[in-house]
Amino acid sequence: MTEPGPDEVMDHLVQVSFTVMALLSRAAAAHDLSLTQLRALAILRDRTPKMAELADYLGLDRSSVTGLIDRAVKRGLVRREASEDDGRAVRVGLTDQAHRLAGELGAEIATLLAPLTHDLSPAERNRLGVLLGRMLPPER
Length: 140
Prior knowledge:
Mean pLDDT: 93
Strand order of the largest sheet: 1-2
Number of domains: 1
CATH class: Mainly Alpha
Radius of gyration: 18 Å
Shape: elongated
Distance between the termini: 39 Å
CATH architecture: Orthogonal Bundle
CATH topology: Arc Repressor Mutant, subunit A
Number of strands: 2
């Protein structure tokens, strides 16, 4: 097996990205969520950011995030709370219902993604995880 060239690496990365996004969209749709709503739930699993911080995480403008959160609040998935460190700011977090949903979605997504790495050895899967982690921007 020959080593892929830079163009082939980029092509494979894009193809895998599209495949993963399609699988994530399928999992989200099964729960009547958009891909953006799924991303928001994933971000909120382990933090309660201010609305502006959530907008930054999602790469969206604040008005779009406000609408996104309004819809999630109506569904009972997200709660708003006053920020303790800034009286003007609002923090958002998941409700218990949303934490349960996030757990279900995590299991479903793991099942959907498993075939992508099925043919890799444990060492290859570990190396892939390390390499993908190095490609991510530093956590804020």
